[in-house]
Write a structure and sequence with these properties.
Blueprint: H1 2-6, H2 12-33, H3 42-66, H4 72-79, H5 82-93, H6 101-119, H7 126-152, H8 158-180, H9 190-218, H10 220-223, H11 230-242, H12 248-265, H13 269-284
Helix pairs in contact: 2-3, 2-8, 2-9, 3-7, 3-8, 4-7, 4-11, 5-6, 5-7, 6-12, 8-9
């Protein structure tokens, strides 16, 4: 919703540039309060700098650009497809997050929800379809980044996983803004600045600090499932504050995507018992 409000006054590149810069400043404040050791080698630096592109600059820009032509409620539902892409990526690139029958069933359920959601715009303008495709592509970037984070930043302090990438993202997006949206003018409306402050400090700085912590604690597939909560908030806020319309495709698509979360996270009684035995064995060891 805040993206939709801010994009009314500023271009997508400038919006993302201000957003990631505010997120970076938030990280600097946290590091100042609780100092951490910075990476010393190129091997430690390069994954973080790459994440600035794959987890911040690219997906933030794609979602923001997409919302120029689609409702925020639709964007929030499409953004909830992140775990569906993460499932397969994690299976091939990680040893502890493999595909199961339930995950496949959840994947198919969620995919059906996306198809139904997109069907409401069959015959719509190309800008609408491109906007929806941009948000889906952003979800793919998020999924790949989550797996990449888990694989390459195991021993990195959480605050550095989010702050350093936002530094490289800030450089890239300011250059993009000055090249593609010149002359660049900062927003004048108070509501736009409120939206940018929320997106930068809460939606980037604080949110990704916690998200990157969870990726290492519970794995990329389960941690990215937080995006399944987006449709509920996104649809309600869009309808209440932005006068967006509720359609049967929106409801049915959202329900199927949320149902896929339940399926993927479902654990049988037998599986739970095995997990308890494994925990007890580890404690005994």
């Amino acid at each position: 919703m805040w993206i939709k409000l801010a994009i009314r006054e500023v271009g997508p590149a400038l919006l993302v540039a201000v957003r990631v810069s505010l997120g970076f400043l938030f990280g600097i404040v946290v590091i100042f309060i609780q100092p951490v050791k910075l990476p010393r080698t190129l091997k430690e630096w390069w994954p973080l700098l790459i994440l600035g592109i794959t987890n911040f600059a690219a997906p933030f820009f794609l979602i923001t650009w997409g919302e120029k032509s689609i409702d925020s409620s639709v964007a929030s539902i499409l953004d909830a497809t992140v775990p569906l892409f993460t499932i397969f990526m994690a299976h091939y690139f990680l040893n502890d997050d493999k595909v199961t029958l339930l995950k496949i069933l959840g994947l198919l359920t969620g995919f059906a929800g996306v198809i139904i959601l997109l069907s409401k715009d069959t015959g719509a303008s190309s800008s609408t379809l491109f906007g929806e495709a941009a948000v889906v592509l952003a979800s793919i970037f998020y999924a790949g980044s989550a797996v990449f984070i888990r694989k390459t930043t195991q021993n990195m302090p959480g605050i550095l996983r989010s702050t350093i990438p936002m530094f490289s993202a800030s450089i890239i997006m300011w250059l993009t803004a000055f090249i593609s949206e010149s002359p660049v003018h900062l927003p004048e409306l108070r509501l736009t600045w409120i939206a940018l402050l929320f997106l930068g400090i809460i939606g980037s700085g604080l949110a990704f600090l916690m998200a990157f912590y969870l990726i290492h604690e519970i794995g990329p597939t389960r941690s990215t499932m937080v995006t399944y909560i987006f449709p509920l908030g996104g649809v309600l806020l869009g309808v209440i504050f932005l006068n967006e319309q509720i359609t049967w495709q929106l409801i049915m698509g959202g329900v199927l995507i949320l149902l896929s979360l339940i399926v993927v996270n479902w654990k049988s009684t037998e599986s739970k018992s095995i997990n308890k035995i494994e925990v007890k064995a580890e404690l005994l060891d």
